[in-house]
Structures are given as C-alpha cells and as structure tokens.
TrEMBL record:
Protein name from the UniProt record: Exocyst complex protein exo70
Top-rank taxon: Eukaryota
The species this protein was found in: Cercophora newfieldiana
Family label: Belongs to the class-III pyridoxal-phosphate-dependent aminotransferase family.
C-alpha cells in the first residue's frame, strides 16, 4: 500500500522546474538527481528562480530558526567582513568570537565554562571526543587507558570519519566500516515507539535501558570509557524522538558511577529548537561537553560549537593548558558575528516564547491532520521539532522497504505546486529499527497562520487549503 496518493500532474510539473545535476559541475550527493534552484529566502518562505514560493517547514535540516532575509544579520556579517574577515586564532581573537562565547557560557545556567567555535556539527563532534580524551590524560593522576566511547544504535553524530565512528547510523557507516575507529560501541536508543514493550512503564523501560548501558560499561571495562554520547532529542537518525522521563538522569548516574563524561549532541535539537535554549534543560541534567550547530547561526553562516563544562576546562587549565586541536577557520569572525546576531534576535524578540506558545498548535494539528492515516505509525517531538514516522502496517509497525524511498516521496509530494511546503526526509529501515520519517521544524518566528501550512498538505492527495500567494 502506498502511504499517499501522489499527485501525478503536480509531480510532473515539479520535475519540469528542476535543474538536472547530470550536467552540473557540482559533485552533488546524487549525481543523477535534479534540484530546485533557490533564488531567495523571505521570512518563513523560500522563493525559487521561477518565482514560486515554498513554505520552509523544516529550515533545511532544522537549521533555519529566525527565517530568511534578516537585515540585522546581513548587516552584522557585512560589517564583520569589512572590519575583520579572517582571524588566525593562534595569535588573535575578535570581539565577535569573545562576545559569542561569553553569551554561550552565560546562557548555560552556570554549567559551561568555555565555548569552542568551529564550522560544522561534524567538526564539533570531532573536537568534543578529543576534548574528552584529553581530559583524562590531564587528570591528576591521569587515566590514559580511557579511550573508549559508548553511543547509541541508529544515532547520527556527523559525517567525518571520527564523528561517523561515534554514531550508530548503519547506512551511513556501511561503506566506510573498515576505516572507522574501533573504540566505539553502541547501546539501544531510548525510542518509546519501537523500543518499549507493550504495557512497560516508563520507569521499567528506563531501568532496562540503564541496565543495558551499565552492562556495556562492564563489558568494555568501566575504567576504559571516556564518555557516553547521546542526542537529547534524536533528530535526523530517528525523526525527533525525545527520551522518556527520567532516562537522561539515569544514564547520567551510570556515567558518574564509572567516572565517565556525558557528551550531549545538540547540533540539531539545541539552541532553542525544542522550546528551551538547550534540550537538556528539560531533562534535569547538564552534560560535561555539549555540541551545538544548526540553530546557532540559523543558516546565515557555517558555524557550530563545543561547550565545555567546568570539570573539563579546569582540568585542562591545571594540566597542559593546551587543547591539542585546531582548524584554519575556527572561530571565523563572519560566523561568530552572524551567530551572535541570531542569538540576540532570539532573545530580544522572545522567540522561545513563540516556540512554546505555538508548539501545541503544531503538534495537535499534525495529529489531527494525519494521525489517523493508516500509514502514519507515530508522531513525536518537542517544541518546533516534530517527526512523523510512516509504516507499511500500523498494527505491527512494519516499516516500508528502504528502496521505496517513502519519506523522500512524501517530501516531494508536499513540495508540489499545489502545496509548496518543505519538510525534511529521513529513514529507510536499513536495520528494522525505524521506519521512514519526515521532520517538521519551522522557524521560531513563524506566524500563527503559517504554522498551519504543513497540516494543510494532509496525506490524501487533492488540493491543499494553502493558497499559492501566501
Ligand atoms: N550531530 C547531529 C545530531 C546532527 O544532526 C548532525 C547533522 O545533521 C551532525 C552532528 C553533523 O553536523 P554537520 O552536518 O553540520 O557536520
């Protein structure tokens, strides 16, 4: 059974508007695919070269958070580039970098001591794991035997070799498996829809997962583990899956018990996406090291970061005082200026209040619009970070075959001329743990009217309520 009635004529129209990658000089991810050509961003909308408007219901992969075409950010970046376009961080710093890092430390409720600015989430993860290792080398007395990491199955922490090795994303790892570091093992994710047994309470589920983690520490040798790595709300890998209450407190306790660090990857779910600046604030735990990314610069520049807690920073300060890591473009002034302005806008315009206020409209609306569809297995998320998982059979939660590319089809369907809504695909049940999903993650300043647009698509074909002139 197909999950949606694809609107053939609209899809054909969409194809005509696409630019083929076959003749392109770009090494696109799909060499034979075709792409829509973006001309402009305006608030919550993207404008194509042919003038067609698309409601940006996901901000790319939950990157956009203040919408597009923001004058303040553009001016801040322009000013920065004219003043100091590049900063060799071995000798120099910039006001933009200092102000951004101070803001990040000051908004961490006292948990974080320093921030480290890089250019992508993968770079942030690479830095985070090296920082964890270096922490143990500089402890007094040092613990050089700690070089092991425990993460979770079907997790995604980045695409570079180190970050890929930390993650448990089977499909993205497969071709590179022989090249990945071997000192990483994985336990089950906290995934209520697919992981909890019928009738199992939250407490019992947490206890079971905690035991699995504890057993893994014991199996690999508890004094060899640097850190447990997890995403507070799993983004791209599973489709906006929050943990059940108490899970993060319980895994934190296991880490404490074995003297290991907790690294939380908030590249996707952080910087306000779930309604609080950090997703961990809703879990009642704080990490020792945290990665941030997408919402930090809201897509205006390529920027990500690592936040290091006091324990880590104090240890390095008392030790070598040198973090043995660095990139030519770390702390890039334009990135820092953009992120600083984006974060100011979020604060000054009270955008997290908007997320909290409108989140129920989004979540309830999605449930009402498509929750009853026979191929919608589960709708979950937090704040402005919602995932819909599609299944071939609702009763058994059986995923569609990955080669059917159901999530991709649904995204194309939502993009068609009639609807013009951008949502983000994920999935392919490569290991049976998950189905196809789409992510809906609008900008924090979306209007009350526009937030209805993803719901207007529905899943039954036909024309959406959304008019084209939005
Ligand atoms: N960590 C998480 C949780 C992510 O979702 C991603 C990207 O999707 C990354 C790390 C890697 O970030 P980037 O693609 O910027 O390298």
């Amino acid at each position: 059974m197909v999950p949606v009635q694809l609107n053939e004529s609209a899809n054909a129209a969409l194809d005509r508007e696409k630019t083929s990658a076959a003749d392109s000089a770009v090494l696109h991810r799909h060499l034979d695919a075709s792409f829509l050509s973006l001309a402009k961003g305006e608030g919550s909308y993207l404008v194509l070269e042919d003038g067609r408007k698309i409601f940006d219901g996901s901000g790319g992969a939950a990157v956009g958070c203040i919408g597009w075409g923001n004058q303040r950010v553009a001016e801040a970046v322009t000013r920065q580039i004219l003043d100091v376009p590049y900063c060799p961080t071995i000798f120099y710093t910039t006001k933009a970098q200092e102000d951004l890092c101070r803001t990040l430390v000051e908004t961490s409720n006292g948990h974080m001591a320093r921030a480290y600015i890089v250019n992508s989430g993968s770079e942030a993860m690479e830095a985070a794991v090296k920082l964890a290792r270096q922490y143990y080398l500089e402890l007094d007395p040092p613990q050089p035997q700690r070089a092991q990491f425990i993460s979770r199955k079907q997790s995604y922490h980045g695409i570079t070799l180190g970050a890929l090795a930390i993650g448990g994303h089977a499909a993205r790892r497969a071709k590179f498996e022989p090249m990945l570091m071997k000192n990483v093992t994985q336990v089950s994710p906290c995934f209520e829809y697919r992981g909890k047994t019928p009738g199992e309470s939250d407490e019992a589920y947490v206890e079971r997962l905690t035991k699995e983690l504890d057993d893994e520490f014991q199996r690999v040798g508890p004094d060899t583990v640097c850190a447990f790595v997890a995403e507070p709300v799993v983004g791209a890998a599973l489709g906006c899956v929050p943990a059940v209450p108490g899970y993060f407190k319980a895994v934190r306790a296991v880490c404490e018990n074995y003297g290991a660090l907790l690294i939380l990857d908030e590249v996707m779910c952080g910087m306000g996406r779930t309604g609080t600046l950090h997703a961990w604030e809703q879990e009642g735990v704080a990490p020792d090291i945290q990665t941030i990314g997408k919402g930090l610069g809201g897509g205006y520049q390529s920027i990500a970061g690592v936040l290091a807690g006091h324990r880590v920073v104090d240890t390095l300060a008392k030790g070598s005082s040198v973090f043995v890591h660095g990139h030519t473009y770390q702390g890039h002034p334009a990135g820092c200026a953009a992120a600083l302005e984006v974060q100011k806008i979020i604060q000054e315009e009270g955008l997290l209040n908007n997320v909290q206020e409108l989140a129920p409209i989004l979540s309830n609306g999605l449930v009402e619009a498509v929750g009853g569809h026979p191929n919608v297995g589960n709708i979950r998320g937090r704040g402005f970070f919602w995932g819909i998982e599609f299944v071939a059979d609702k009763e058994t939660a059986t995923p569609f075959p990955p080669e059917d590319h159901v999530a991709m089809d649904i995204c194309e369907f939502a993009l068609t001329k009639d609807y013009g809504v951008g949502v983000y695909p994920g999935g392919g049940s490569v290991d049976g743990i998950r189905g196809d999903h789409i992510i809906i993650s609008p900008p924090y300043n979306v209007s009350r009217d526009d937030i209805q647009r993803p719901m207007a698509v529905g899943l039954s074909g036909g024309r959406a309520a959304a008019d084209e002139e939005a």
